[in-house]
Automatic annotation (TrEMBL):
HAMAP family in alphabetical order: TIM_B
Quaternary data: Homodimer.
Name the UniProt record assigns to this protein: Triosephosphate isomerase
Lineage, highest ranks first: Eukaryota, Fungi, Fungi incertae sedis, Chytridiomycota, Chytridiomycota incertae sedis
GO MF terms held by the record: triose-phosphate isomerase activity
């Protein structure tokens, strides 16, 4: 819940649009809902735009919610679902996130579903148990994984300044990929991008990006700053 029309001008129009970005990196930015249309109109065509949430009905008496049809009407083609803050503050269950992911995919959106564990889960050795349950709820509902990018975000590393080490992140990413191979298909495991989120910044992005199964980043606070360009270009 950050941003302003001034930020769209300074960050999108004057920074992202004019910077030389790594052409092999797909860039998607996710402003609050009221800024989606202006962001889409401002950003270069090679930059995608995502909503931070969407509901699983086409229309109707669901005050305060947004449908895939509404997003597509303003040329928004991506959505983030199941972010840890949605799960924590708004009590979104694994099943609810799975249903929303499937509905969004079936209605033409590309989806970034988020999975991740809290500190108490990690300390109790339950990291993968938690993440596998989150993945299963998605797999139980989704038939086509073509337009899904999984984001792994250890909840204890979001906005805390704590970052999973490249080795910790790689270990989880590798386990997610293995779970996909074992429970969905080898093809989905190989082709699905798995991105890391959790206090990513320009200083740690380079080391994280070297890991075999880290295919990109879900960037939080650092995406509001000019260093976002350096994160995009971390592999250059």
């Amino acid at each position: 819940m950050n941003g302003s029309t001034a930020l769209i001008k300074s960050l999108v129009a004057e920074t992202l649009n004019t910077a030389k970005l790594d052409e092999s990196v797909e860039v998607v930015i996710a402003p609050p809902a009221v800024y989606l249309e202006k962001t889409r109109a401002t950003a270069n065509k090679n930059i995608g735009v995502a909503a931070q949430n969407v509901y699983y009905k086409k229309s109707g008496a669901y005050t305060g919610e947004i449908s895939p049809e509404i997003l597509k009407d303003v040329n928004v083609e991506w959505v983030i679902l199941g972010h840890s803050e949605r799960r924590e503050y708004f009590k979104e269950s694994n099943e609810f996130v799975g249903e929303k992911t499937a509905f969004a995919i079936e209605n033409g959106l590309k989806v970034i579903p988020c999975v991740g564990e809290k500190l108490e889960h990690r300390e109790a050795g339950k990291t993968m148990e938690i993440i596998f349950a989150q993945l299963k709820a998605i797999a139980d509902n989704v038939k086509d994984w073509t337009n899904i990018v999984i984001a792994y975000e250890p909840v204890w590393a979001i906005g805390t300044g704590k970052v999973a080490t490249p080795q910790q992140a790689q270990e989880v990413h590798a386990q997610i990929r293995k779970w996909l191979a074992d429970n969905v298909s080898a093809e989905v495991a190989e082709n699905t991008r798995i991105i890391y989120g959790g206090s990513v910044n320009a200083k740690n992005a380079g080391d994280l990006s070297k890991e075999k199964d880290i295919d990109g980043f879900l960037v939080g606070g650092a995406s509001l700053k000019p260093e976002f360009v350096n994160i995009i270009n971390a592999r250059l």
